[in-house]
Amino acid sequence: MNFKNKIVVITGASSGIGEATALKLAKEGANVVLTARREERLNELKKKVDELNAGKALVVTGDVTNKDNFKTLVEKTKKEFNSIDGLINNAGLIEPISKLADSSPEEWANVADVNYKGVYFCIRSVLPTMLGVGEGVIVNVSTGAATSPREGWSHYCSSKAGALMLTKMVHHEYAQSGIRAVGLSPGTVDTD
Prior knowledge:
This protein has helices at residues 16-27, 39-52, 67-81, 105-133, 154-174; strands at residues 7-11, 31-35, 57-59, 86-89, 136-141, 179-184. It has a six-stranded parallel beta sheet, sandwiched between helices. It has five helices and six strands, in the order E-H-E-H-E-H-E-H-E-H-E. The chain is globular. Strand 2 (31-35), helix 2 and strand 3 (57-59) form a beta-alpha-beta unit. The mean pLDDT is 94. By secondary structure, the chain is an alpha/beta fold.
């Protein structure tokens, strides 16, 4: 696949899978839009991308649980690169792990907001641009926990299950318009 000059938005880009994905795509010549809450980490990653002398990086700090952040992200991306070819919904939370009876409703809801609503907010924000050009690829980072329960992971399993169905719905509704949506389950990853 040729990524040269493609514009790819990556959520959760400040570490782990998001950071590694940004570097790999940039090496392949893609322009990456890096978004996460940790601006300092994003700026460090931008420097690494710049040192590759291949694709460019744009930093747009934001929280996936705030739908208004995505309006800014899309505006800045289109101003810098004119379009959006791909989206990698990578931002996600699993902590704190606890059984339902011991869970904190606020912390449980926060995980659901990041893992499910954040995926929706980002997809909803980039879809009009992708539909305008008649193509796009959306990759939602998934997990085996989306289809199999794990003790203490009710927030994670259920929010990832919702995101998996959302992935299928995007593909179902927009594949004929040139938008492909897929879920990618990388397995256990030892990152922060």
